[in-house]
Amino acid sequence: MFETTIFTIVWGFAIGVLVSAPMGPTGILVIQRTLNKGRLPGLLTGLGASLSDFFYAVITVFFLGLVVDWLEEYESTLQFVGSLAIAAYAAYLWRSNPASSLQNKDTSTDGMSPRLKASGILKNFFSGFGITVSNPFIIFFFIALFARTNFLFAASTKNWWLYIVGFVSLITGAVGWWFLITWVVNKVRNNFGVRTLRNINHGIAIIMFGIALFGFGNGIYYLFVS
pTM score, two decimals? Predict the structure, then answer.
């Protein structure tokens, strides 16, 4: 049980980071607000996005819980399919242009100081949530990662606390990413450009390719060796 708990914490944190890290529209908005208004507005935007990720993660786990027996029966096939989905997303991420992800640049400077007004807090938080929640296809990304890592499949009604541990780890990973990215951007805000965004995308894409290759290898092993 101890190993299962550690497994859940590690993969939950990793999935939270992997889902948040790609520089899509939300990431661009977080970085832009950090550059233009300071770290706090950017962080609030990221926290809103994290709430959306948590919302979709709960939906995904609930859906997978209904078909867990089927998933276990076709584990090898799902390893291939999940790895293929991750590889496809990594390829898209590698080829994507971060500068074109956000067309409407928010350049307002309506008193966004470290002591934000309540309206400013809500604006930043819910804009991050709204942009992220408007992309329900993230569910398929969660399904691919959950199937690939067997995340929370070991939990049961007798071990309901594993779900709590898993979800807390996932949201911690997502929030931790936004803490990190806003801290870095705030430190280097004077020389931060599109090239850096593209390099971040490439780095995340390489990690995802590695996960996909590992999944293909595991699938082949269980299908033909075990």
Answer: 0.67
What's the whole-number mean pLDDT along residues 169-182?
Answer: 94
Owning domain of residue 37: 2-224
Report the number of distinct structural domains present in the chain: 1
Q: How many residues does the chain have?
A: 226
Q: What average pLDDT does range 153-161 have in this prediction?
A: 60
Which 3-state string (H, E, C) describes the chain? Answer: CHHHHHHHHHHHHHHHHHHHCCCCHHHHHHHHHHHHHCHHHHHHHHHHHHHHHHHHHHHHHHHHHHCHHHHHHCHHHHHHHHHHHHHHHHHHHHHCCHHHCCCCCCCCCCCCCCCCCHHHHHHHHHHHHHHHHCCCCHHHHHHHHHHHHCCCCCCCHHHCHHHHHHHHHHHHHHHHHHHHHHHHHHHCHHHCCHHHHHHHHHHHHHHHHHHHHHHHHHHHHHHHCC
Q: Which has the higher per-residue pLDDT, 139 or 169?
A: 169
